[in-house]
Structures are given as C-alpha cells and as structure tokens.
Amino acid sequence: MIHPDVEPGDVVERAFREESSRALATLIRLLGDFDLAEEAVQDAFVIAIERWPRDGVPDRPGAWIVTTARNRALDTLRRRRTEAAKVAEIERAAGAGVEEDVRLGGESRVADDRLRLIFTCCHPALPLDARVALTLRTLGGLTTPEIARAFLVPEATLAQRIVRAKKKILAAHIPYRVPPDDLLPERLDGVLATLYLIFNEGYTASVGDALVRRDLCAEAIRLARLVAGLMPDEPEAAGLLALLLLQDSRRDARTGADGSLVLLEDQDRSRWDRAEIAEGTALVARSLTIARGRPGPYVLQAAIAACHADAVGADDTDWAEIAALYAALARVAPSPVVDLNRAVAVAMAEGPASGLILVEGLAREGSLDDYHLLHAARADLLRRVGRRGEAAAAYERALELATNGAERAFLARRLGEVRSAG
Prior knowledge:
This protein is mainly α and about 425 residues long. Among the domains are: about 10-100, Orthogonal Bundle (Rna Polymerase Sigma Factor, Chain: A), CATH 1.10.1740; about 110-215, no CATH class; about 335-420, Tetratricopeptide repeat domain (Serine Threonine Protein Phosphatase 5, Tetratricopeptide repeat), CATH 1.25.40.10. The chain has helices spanning about 10-30, 35-55, 60-80, 85-95, 110-120, 130-140, 145-150, 155-170, 185-205, 215-230, 235-250, 275-290, 295-310, 320-330, 335-350, 350-365, 370-385, 390-400, 405-420. The termini are far apart.
C-alpha cells in the first residue's frame, strides 16, 4: 500500500530502529544461524531503501522486513545446495504465515522470539561477558564500539567475544527457547545484566548528539516486564524493572528544549513521570520484601533511585541514605563505578572536600582513567572547592574521552566557566 504523505526514507529509518531486533530474533528462530540472520535482515533493509521510494511504504513495514529477510536467507541456503532440510523447514513456517507473527503495535510470537533470544545468548555455557555482549549486539541493536564502551574494553576484544559466543552456540547446539522454570535462575544474571546495559545505552547514548535513545529504553523496560513476569518471586527481576522505571521517569526532564544536558539537581521535577514513579516505588517495596533482608545489586540501585524520586526538590534529597545504599551496593557488587557513585553521594551529604578525597583515591588507582565520568566528577568537585586550575585540566580530560554530543557540550560549557573564573 502506497502512502504518498509519508517519506519512505524516514519510514525505513524508523523501521530499522523499531523492527530490526524483532526481525533478527524471528530470523534466528527460523535459521538457527546468527550470522545468516544478521546478513538477511541487513539485506532486507537495503532492499527497502531501494524499493519503498519507488513502490510506496507497506502497511506493515515490520512484516515486510521479516518476509524479505526470510526470502533472502532461503536464496542463500539454496545456493549452498546442502541445506535442503532447513529450506523445507523455513518454507513450512512461511506457509503457516510467519509474517503474521510481526504486527506493529501488538504482541505476538515476536515478543517470545526476543525473549528466547535473550535466554539463548545468556546460556550458562557461555562466559558472562560474552552472554551480555552477544545479546546487546543481536537484540539491543548496539554496535560493537557502543558495547565495547559499556564494557570499558577495546573493540577488537569485544568483537572476538561475540564471534566466540556465536560459534559456541552452534557447536554446542544450545536450544533457542525460554528454558523451563527450574533452569531460569542460572540464566538470570546474564539476562538482567543485558537488559540493564540496553537501558543504559538508551538512557545516556554513548555516541551521537542526542542524550537519550527512547527506543532502547522502552525495549529494555518491555523485556524486563516479561522477565519479571516469568520469575515473580525473584527480587532482582522486580528490582531491575523498578530501577528502569524510576530512571526512565526522569527522561523528559534530563534535556532542555535545545537538547542540552540538565543535571539532576537542576531538573524540573514536575516533568517527571509520576505513573512510572508510583509503579517503580511499589516494585522497590515488593522486591525488598521478597529479598528478606538480603537485597541484591538491582534492588539496591532501585532503592537509590526511589530516594531521588521521593525528594520534593534537590535540597530535600536524603544523600546520607543514598551514600549508605551505595556502600551496601559496594559490598554486594564491588566495582570502581559503584565507588565513584558513592563518592559523589558522600560529597553531596558531607561536602565536596569529603567526596574529593574518595575520588582522588579512585583516580590514583587508575582503573577508571579512561572513564569520562570519573574526570567529570573530579572536575566538578575541584571546581566546588575552588581549585579551578586543576578543575579545568580534569574537564579537559573528560571532554577528551566523552563521545556523546550533549555531554560534550555540557563539559565544554563548564570548562569555559572555570577558565573564565580563574
């Protein structure tokens, strides 16, 4: 169906953003081959770019992409002349109406496909870092550089992890399914870590001019709901969903009208999504109850987010409680990033000098030297204690490392302020 009032190029871009992970999940289910599925879906979008401006945009772009990708994959398999059984299997699925599984705006088997894909990628036979990286690449639609940045590792290292994980799935005949209930717990850590990183990439995009990628945030929340529904008695599943909802509730207030970054303390809290806050806060209470005094990392992070949501204004934030929660998080899931967040909370609770002592210790330790937020936090604390020359150098280092346009603009503005004040 031709829609003359719609720009085909815009629809292709939107379809890629919204439908690529769905199409890929469906093709992986049909083919059992990650690389062939990725190639077929990419080919389908190339064909869309060629045909939609000429023939018009289909009524259901997502279904068109799946059907075209399936046909491209069939062509490839036929050329190989050794995949007759797989060709017959895919053709039988096509006769049953595979494209009916992809309906824009509605739930269908495609939701299960994406959930199956998560659990396949997060099989315990794979190393945890490889599980998360592969799922982010195939389901989250993140590029290798974006994932490498999230892991703080070189791109080549990350690429090798993904290649090895794909080969392991094929060699070990890891099934493409949501596992039975008794096997769900052993997959949970990888699944939750994956959803958290997908959301984080959407919440603060590692590259580009826009701070937020709403599609990734929405997809992570949707999948987190599915996982929490599968495991209603698992506090970490409920905790992750609570965390994502509470973080997402601040999305519209995080940028100004011009797309510039707005810090938490300066946000217009009337723009926070109260419905998400109410749901997230209720989930925090529920997850704490289920945890029975032994909260895990996602429950603790959700409790921290709830502290921010409960504050009427920035000055009303219980920073002492947040610092204590970060200390508890450091015991449960120690990491330099958690220590950095705790240092910032201590600075807010006890003054910038106290927080700066902790941040300087992290800077000397060196594990976060390539993490722009360490240098940004150090710069801010140095600025607040009046050490403007050192603050300027730290802002310069943060600006050198930052890749998101909105963050870079904010850091450049702060750098200009400390230079002019000095």
